[in-house]
Amino acid sequence: MAPDDQIFGNYLIVSKARVGLQTQSEGEPLDTLILSRIQFGANISFHILFPTITIALGWALLFFRLRFNATGERKWMDVYVFWVKIFALSFAMGVVSGITMSFQFGTNWPGFMETVGNVAGPLLAYEVMTAFFLEAVFLGIMLFGASRVKPWVHTLATFLVAFGTTMSAFWILVLNSWMHTPQGYELRDGIVHATDWFAIIFNPSMPYRLVHMLLASGLTVAFLVAGISALRLLWGDRAESVKTTLRFGIITGAALIPLQILAGDFHGLNTLEHQPAKVAAMEGNWETGPNIPLLLFAVPDGDARQNNFEIGVPSGASIILKHKPSGVVPGLNDFVAEDGTALHPPVAPVFYSFRIMVGTGMAMLVLSWGGLYLLRRYGAGDMPTVPLVGFAAMSFSGWIATLAGWYTTEIGRQPWLVQGVLSTKDAVSDVPAGMVMGTLIGYLAIYAALTIAYISVITYLARKASRGEPLSTRRYPRSGEAEVAVIPGE
Amino acid sequence: METFGDPAVWLPWTFAALMGLSILIYVILDGFDLGVGLLMPLADDAEKDLLVASIGPFWDANETWLVLAIGLLLVAFPPAHGIILTALYFPVFVMLVGLILRGVSFEFRAKAPIAQKPRWNLAFFLGSLLAAMSQGFMLGMYVMGLTWTVSHVAFALLTAVFLTVGYSFIGAAWLIAKTGGDLQARAVGWARGGIWGLIFGIGGISLATPFVSPRIFDKWFSLPEFFYLSPMPLLSLALVGYLWWQIRHLPRPDDRRAWGPFAAAMALFTLAFGGMAYSFYPYVVPEQITIYDAAAAPESLSIILIGTLFVLPAILGYTALSYYIFRGKATELRYD
Ligand code: HDD
Ligand code: HEM
Ligand code: HEM
Which residues from B are below 8 Å from A5, CB to CB? Predict the structure, then answer.
C-alpha cells in the first residue's frame, strides 16, 4: 500500500497502523520527540494552573453562598461577587487550555491512543459527559443567573459547577494514575484491551493521587484567597468582607497543610511500592542499601552517576520510607540495562522539583500556622504588616508546589508514557520537527502573555474593590424568602 | 458485515452517528457564537456589549460539543483520530489559537481596565476569525481527502471564506432573534450580506463532493437513489428562498418571526451536513479507512455507550433549561 503514502503529503502516518508502532526511533523523529515533549509539558503545565484554582474555588464559593443563605449577612454576598469573577476568569483559561489538551493527543501523540485507546478513551469520554457539560452549562447560571433564578436554584448551580470540576479531576486522575500503575488490562497484538474496569478505575495509585491533588487545589485557593485579601488590607481596604476572607484563607490553609504532608507521605510510600526507580530519583540515591540519608540538598550528576555535594539527615530516607534506620532503600544503579542505558528517569529534574514542592509545603505550614496565631492575637483587621506581606507574596505559591509535584510525578515516570506498557518515544507523531517548533513557540508566546494578563487583572480587580467601588448594588433575598423588589434607583 | 446484530457493525455505526450529531450541534451552536464574534467590528461600543451578552451564558457549553466530538473520534476511532489530526496539524493549531484568544477575551474585556477594552475586543474578533477560517479550511481539506496539493489547498481556502461568512450569517440570525431596536435592524442588514456565504459554501461543497471520487458520484447520481435524494437539494433551495424573503421583511413591528431566520439556518446546516455524511459513509478518513476498520474494541465502545444513554438525555435536558433561563432579548450581563 506504499502508493497511498503520498496521499497525505508530508505529514502522514497511515503507515503506523500498518508497520506497527515500534518503527520510529532513529533520525529526525527524535527532534520531534523532544519538541513534542516540551510542547506537551508546556500545555499541560499551563492548563493545570487553572483547574487547580477552579476545583477548590468552586467549593469555596458554595460555602460563601451557603453562609449567606444561613446568616443573611451582606458581606458573604460581597465575597461571593468578588471571587466569582476570579472564578470565571480562571474557568475560561482552564477551558481554552483544556481544549488544546484534548487535541494534543491526536496531533502529537497518536501512538498513545492507538495503543491504550481502549482504556484511555472511555475514561476521557466519561470526563466529557459527566463533568464538562455539567460545569459548562451551569456555569452560565452560576455567573449570570443570580438575578434571574430563585436563590436555591443559584445555590444549586454553584454546587453543580463545583461538583463538575471535581468530577473532571477524578476522571483525568484515574487516567493519569493508570498510566503510572496500570492494571486490569491485557495486551492483544500490542494493543491494550480492558478486562476489568473496576481494577482500572481503582488502580493502586489513584486514591493517593486524587486526595493529594484535591488537597493541593484546596491549598492553592486558600493561599490565593489569603494573599489577595492581605494585599487589599495592605492597600488600606478595611471592608468586613476582606477580613472575612483573610480569616477564611488562613484557617483553610492551616487545616489542609498537615493533611497534605500526611497524604504526600503516603503517596511516596505507594510510589516506592510501584515505581521504585522514581523514588530513587526523588531521593537522589544511587546505591541500594540501609541507612540512606535524607538529602536536604545535593547536586546530582547524571553522567558521573553520583551526587557532587550533599547535605543530609543521616538515615532520614530509610526512616521515612521504611520506618527504621536500617531500612533498605532502592538505588538508581539497580535500574541500568546490561548495555549501560539507564532505565530510570533523569535524576536532576525529579530530585529538584521534589524539593521545591516539599519546600513550598513547609513554607505553607510555617506561614499558615503563624498566621493562625496572629489571627487569635490581633484579629484579621489589625494583622501586622510583615505577615500580610508574607501572605501577599505567597498568593500563587500553590501553583509552584503543584507544578513541581507534577514534574516529579511525570518526569519520574520516564522513559515510560504508560509504565511498563508504552514508552514515550513510541507514541510520538512524525509531524516534521520544524512544524512542532513553530507551534511550540506560538503556544509559549500566548501562554506567557495570558499568564501575565491573568495575574494583572486579578490584582486590578482587587485594587478596584479596595478603592471602595461597590461590588453590587442589588439586594439579595435569602433562600426561602420572597423575592424582594430591587432597590429604587437601580 | 451487514448484520446489525453484530456489535462490530452496530457499535461503530452508532458511534459514527453520535459523533456526527455532536459535530452538527457544534457547528450550529458554536457557529452562531463565532458568527457573533465575527460581527463585532461592525457594531458600535454599546452594541458590542450586547453582542457579547447575547452569547455570554452559552458559549462555553457550545464549545463543549467540540470537545465531545473530538473525544468521540478519539475514543471510538483511535487510528483515524491520529491520521486526521496529524494531517491537519497546522490548521488545528490555528483553530486552537483562535479559540484561546476568543475564550479568554470574553472574560478579559469585561474585567481588565477600561482602556484595554478595545484591545480585547479586537482579540475577540481575531480569535473568532481564526477559529472560523481554520474550521472551514479543515472542512475543505477533509472533503478533498486530506491531501495537500495546490488545488486542494485552494479549494480549502475557499471553503474557509464561505464557512466564515456562513457563520456570520447564523450569528446575525441569532442576533435578530435575541436583540431588538436598532441593533436588530442592523443585524438584518448583516444577514443580507452573510447569506451569500451560505449559498456559495453549501453550493460549492455539494457540487465538489461528487467529483472527489467516483464512489460518491455514484451514490448521488445512479438512478433510484437520485430520486430518493432529490428532496434534499430541493428542500435546501426552498429554505434559501424562505431566508431570502424573510430578511427582506424583518424586523416586523410586533417582532413576529424573529426566530425564523435562525430556525431556517439551522435546518439548512443540518441538511448540508446530512448530505456530507451520506457521501462519506462508511469512511471516516475519506476513501481510506472505514468506521468499521478504525473502531476501538467493542467492549470499550459498549462501556461508553451505556454511559452515553444515561448522560446524553440529561445533557440535552439541562442545556435546554439554560436556554430557557436566559430566554428573551439579551440584556446586560451581571454577576450579582
Ligand atoms: C499545593 C500543592 C502541594 C504541596 C504543598 C505538596 N504537594 Fe506533593 N504533589 C502535588 C502537590 C503538592 C501534586 C501537584 O498534586 C502532585 C503531582 C501528582 C499528584 O498526584 O500530586 C504531587 C506529587 C507528590 C508525590 C509524587 C507522587 C508520585 O510518585 O506520583 C509525592 C511523593 C508527594 N507529592 C509528596 C509530598 C510531600 C511529602 C509533601 C510535603 C510537604 C507534598 N507532597 C506537598
Ligand atoms: C492527568 C492527566 C495527564 C495526562 C493524561 C498526562 C499525560 C502525559 C503524556 C502523554 C506525557 C508524555 C509526553 C512527554 O513525555 O512529555 C506526559 C509527560 C509530562 N507531563 Fe503529564 N499528563 C497529565 C498530567 C500532567 C500535569 C498536570 C502536569 C504538570 C503540571 C504534567 C506534566 C508533564 C511533564 C512535565 C511531562 C514531561 C515529562 C518528560 O518528558 O520528561 N502532566 N504526560
Ligand atoms: C491530558 C490531560 C488533560 C486533558 C486532555 C484535559 C482536557 C480538558 C478540557 C477539554 C477542558 C475544557 C472543558 C470544558 O469545555 O468545559 C478541561 C477543563 C478542566 N480540566 Fe482538564 N484536561 C487534562 C488534564 C487535567 C488535569 C491533570 C486536571 C486536574 C487534576 C484537570 C482538571 C480540569 C478541570 C477541573 C476542568 C474544568 C475547567 C476549569 O476549571 O478550568 N484537567 N480539561
Answer: none
> Nearest to residue A36, comparing CAs of A409, A437, A422?
A437
List of long-range contacts for A32-36, beta carbons under 8 Å, 24+ apart: A32/A428, A32/A429, A32/A430, A32/A431, A32/A432, A32/A433, A32/A436, A33/A424, A33/A425, A33/A428, A35/A433, A35/A436, A35/A437, A35/A440, A36/A108, A36/A109, A36/A428, A36/A429, A36/A431, A36/A436
DSSP labels, A398-425: HHHHHHHHHHHHHHTTTTEEETTTEEGG
Residue nearest to atom 15 of ligand 3 (CA): B64
Domain-located, residue B334: no
User: Cβ–Cβ of A457/B311 closer than 8 Å?
Assistant: no
Residues of B in contact with A84 (CB under 8 A): 335
By the CB < 8 Å criterion, does B245 face chain A? no
In a domain? residue B182: yes
Instruction: Give Cα separations from B80 to A12, A107, B86, B292, B296 (angstroms).
Output: 12, 12, 10, 11, 10
pLDDT band at A490 (very low <50, low <70, confident <90, very high): very low
Residue at B4 is within a domain: no
- Select from A423, A411, A424 the least CA-distant residue to A277: A411
Q: How far is the CA of A158 from the centre of ligand 3 (A)?
A: 18
Tell me, what amino acid is at B187? A
Q: Is the peptide bond preceding residue B253 cis, with omega within 30 degrees of 0?
A: no
Please report the ipTM that was assigned to this predicted complex.
0.77
Helix intervals (H) in B213-297: 214-221, 223-229, 231-249, 260-280, 291-294
Domain of residue B127: give its range.
10-325
Candidates A126, A136, A147; nearest CB to B64: A136
pLDDT tens, position by position, A165-218 = 999 999 999 999 999 999 888 888 878 888 888 999 999 999 999 999 999 999
The grid cell for A326 is: 536500617
Nearest-CA residue for atom 35 of ligand 2: A41
Ligand nearest to the CA of A402: 1
How far, in Å, CA of B106 to CA of B51, rounded?
11
Measured in whole angstroms, the distance separating CA A158 from the mean position of its chain's CA atoms is 22
- Whether the link from the prior residue into A415 is cis, omega within 30° of 0, is yes
**Cα separation of A275 and A465, whole Å?**
49
Q: Which ligand is nearest to the CA of A36?
A: 2
Cα distances (Å, whole numbers) of residue A95 to A48, A183, A216: 11, 30, 20
What is the per-residue pLDDT across B144-197, written as a single tens digit (0 to 9) for each? 777 788 878 888 888 888 888 888 888 888 888 878 777 777 877 787 877 887
Say how far apart CA A463 and CA A234 lie, in whole Å.
11
Report how many domains make up chain B.
1
Cell of B11: 457499535
Could you tell me if B311 lies within 8 Å of chain A, comparing CB atoms?
yes
Identity of the residue numbered A48: I
Is B280 inside any structural domain?
A: yes
d(CA A274, CA A276): 6
pTM: 0.82
Contacts of B57 in chain A (CB under 8 A): 140-141, 143-145
